[in-house]
Amino acid sequence: MTSTIPDETPANPRTHRAVLIAGVALAVAIVVLAIASGSGPLSAPKAIVMGLVEGITEFLPVSSTGHLLITQRLLHLGSGAGKTAADTYAIAIQFGAILAVVALYRNRIVHLVQGAIGKDADGRTLLIRLIVAFIPAAIIGGALDHKIKEHLFAPWPVVGAWAVGGVFLLIWKPKHGTKTLTELTVRSAAIIGFAQALALWPGVSRSLVTIVAALAVGLDIGAAVEFSFLLGLATLSAATALDLAKDGHTLIHDYGILTPLLGALVAFVAAVAAVRWLVSYLNTRPLRNFGYYRIAVAAVTVVLIATNAISAKL
Asked: How far is 266 from 272, CA to CA, in rounded Å?
């Protein structure tokens, strides 16, 4: 597959200089925030670890929600009265991953905006497909949100989802299609959308099920990955906005503003690197290899539960 991420950094001195300046600015911002952050329940090191986990895993087919849930327990975040703040923070740092997709896919997003105002036919077609694919998870997630959090946000459901997904990848025989994003039908977009709803179960991985579904309806691997990322942009934005509107005040009360911002910034940097790596990786290697990782991380989590390193309780 040819990378579908637009080349936003052409080889010229002015662009390289701008990228270097932006990188230095990000590094300085991270250091400043780390120093300025308080020493409350969410310390700067814990915020950085959570940010790294979120950024690295959000767009890989391994489930960021599952990783964050286990990481929270290893860092002793979210127990007792602090659970609401910790869970909200785990959602809020998705903002960093959202910005990573905006930065990497900015040209495509411009086309979507132009499509929304009637100035780009292909952009309008893709925007409609994204809306159709977004709706199933939005409706199902909204209806079952409390039930999902009450019964599934625990290590054992995550272990089960990791293991099942891992086995699936090892036995799955993908047939890569040839369709581009502009050839995606409304029906196919709806199929991808219902597949995305499966990822409401933590550990399943939104990226995994949307890429698999996109390949199943005939998209080529490049288009499947790009559609997954763009759909994730819409889904994560909605989930982040909803959670912050509901429990953002608790997050700020318990953790302040600077430390969560530090985590989000680290998530942005990590997500940019992870997205670029995944696109490059899938140029030459199959999704199958992530199956081994999923099974391995499930096994490690079982050991953590068995040794009481983490609690298996909700």
From this structure: 10
Phi and psi torsions of 285, nearest 5°:
-130, 155
> Is 3 within a domain?
no
Domain count, the chain: 1
Whose structure tokens read 């979120």? Answer: 54
End-to-end Cα separation, the chain, in angstroms: 42
In a domain, residue 314? The reply is: no
Neighbours of 117 (CB within 10 A): 9
Q: Measure the CA–CA gap between 96 and 94, rounded to whole angstroms.
A: 5
- Quote the domain boundaries for residue 216: 13-306
Does residue 255 fall inside a structural domain?
yes
Which tens digits make up the pLDDT trace of 187-239? 999 999 999 999 999 999 999 999 999 999 999 999 999 999 999 999 999 99
